[in-house]
Write a structure and sequence with these properties.
The chain is mostly helical. It folds into 2 domains: 55 residues, Orthogonal Bundle (Arc Repressor Mutant, subunit A); 125 residues, Tetracycline Repressor, domain 2. Helix content is 75%, strand content 0%.
Length: 198
């Protein structure tokens, strides 16, 4: 694929990403994508065989954007509990609070939209949540090995609690756009993480 083809493909993915963010997968039609990208049906199908393939590309783009915001430079933070706090702050302030996607949290919106409708696509989103929980669990394991985590804690349960809390905040923030929601979530979750420290 030449440079022009790559640019056209990216233009299609960007348009689909914005539409899926606001309207969801099922309420976004191919014609919506064509109009937003300013392309023909033949052009779209020259890059993507179907709407699911387009969704997969848009989802991958969104995941890359989120990872770039939330995980950037975290490996340099030696204290895994401090790293966890920075993860929480960035997810709430720099991703959700910055309104990176017009519909709010792209992933939460898609999970709700796809639940009970497409096991394949919702399963892909769910696997991403599980991988994120696994990363947080690894950080807590690192904190345990360094002797800075209280003993007897269920690290997987803590990771799941943090992700459920972040996604609950995202669900509340989407309609209200009230920064107090994500700010309170950061304050409360970071306080919770500090209480895990020995």
């Amino acid at each position: 694929m030449g440079d022009k083809g790559r640019k056209t493909r990216q233009k299609i993915v960007d348009a689909a990403l914005q539409l899926f963010s606001v309207k969801g997968f099922f309420n976004t039609s191919i014609n919506d994508v064509l109009a937003a990208a300013g392309i023909t049906k033949g052009c779209l199908y020259g890059h993507f065989p179907d709407k699911e393939a387009l969704w997969t590309a848009a989802y991958g783009e969104a995941a890359g954007i989120w990872r770039g915001i939330v995980f950037k430079g975290l490996r340099e933070i030696k204290d895994p509990l401090e790293r966890l706090e920075r993860f929480i702050e960035r997810d709430m302030r720099d991703y959700l609070g910055a309104d990176v996607f017009p519909g709010g949290c792209f992933f939460l919106n898609l999970l709700v939209d796809l639940s009970g409708q497409s096991e394949k696509l919702s399963g892909q989103v769910w696997k991403s949540y599980q991988r994120t929980a696994d990363v947080l669990t690894l950080w807590l394991g690192e904190a345990d090995r360094k002797g800075i985590l209280k003993t007897g804690l269920d690290r997987k349960e803590i990771s799941n609690f943090i992700l459920v809390s972040l996604n609950g905040a995202a669900a509340l923030y989407a309609p209200a756009k009230d920064p107090a929601i994500w700010k309170d979530t950061v304050r409360q979750l970071c306080s919770y993480v500090r209480q895990l420290r020995k």
